[in-house]
Amino acid sequence: TDGSMPCWSPCGKKIAFTAEKNDNRDIYYMDADGSNIFRLTTHPDGDVNPAWSPDGSMIAFNSSRSGSSQIWRTNVTDGDGKETWGYNLTQLTQDTPHKRVNNYHSWSPNGLWLAFEADRDRDDPEIYLANAVDGTNQQRLTFTRALDEVPEWSFDSKQIIFSSDMHGEPKSGNYDIYIMDIDGSNLKRLTNTEEQASNPSMSPDGTKIAYDLSQGRESEIYVIDADGANPKSLGKGSNPAWSPFLKEKSK
Fold first, then answer.
1. What is the pTM of this model?
2. Alpha helix (H) ranges present in the chain?
3. CB 138 within 8 A of CB 126
4. Dist. CA 227–CA 28, nearest whole Å
5. Structure confidence by residue, pLDDT tens digits, 143-164
6. Strands 218-225 and 83-91: what pairing?
7. Is 175:166 a contact under the CB 8 Å cutoff?
8. CA quadruple 157, 159, 161, 164: dihedral positive or negative?
């Protein structure tokens, strides 16, 4: 079983991830030391990209089980607190008439919203919000001809960071990191690079943002201050994820 797309649980004791077994990808989670692996979903169309709810009770993920990539969520345990797969499974986004794709998503720290990217009407992804419980009250936040992708939340649930190639040639793939309020206002560019800055992740204490910086096949993990200052390379790697313990240590 090969694992990818790791996501820490809010308590820092478990890690959810995508794993492929017998040519099928599903959502699993395990203890932080790699023990007690549990398979949370099982479907032939594949489930990927888990995101844990802030209270640790649910995991949202992408699945093509409805015919195109949509966002679903499921409880981690049943009503008696027992580990089980597919309990209270709910589809949060729906197919549009043109079968557009709903992709990467992240849960707001206050548990109220999911931010996600969706390609719905112009063959380029934009950033949306949806109610995290049932997928209602969907709101489009970006209106560009660029590729707006990989939304993540600020620690206080008031802002969203994401990657986009909105500066320069449209859909050039030259991404930078941006931040905006959750209504789409106050857009600010945090990086300015000729390479591809993507996969942003804000630290639990709100002071730092980690991201990928890649050119060709080589990728490094960088960290900047929350205002975009003081970029620093941490070495080769991709898809950075902060440990929840950082917030505890900063108190």
1. 0.86
2. 245-250
3. no
4. 35
5. 988 889 999 999 999 999 999 9
6. unpaired
7. no
8. positive
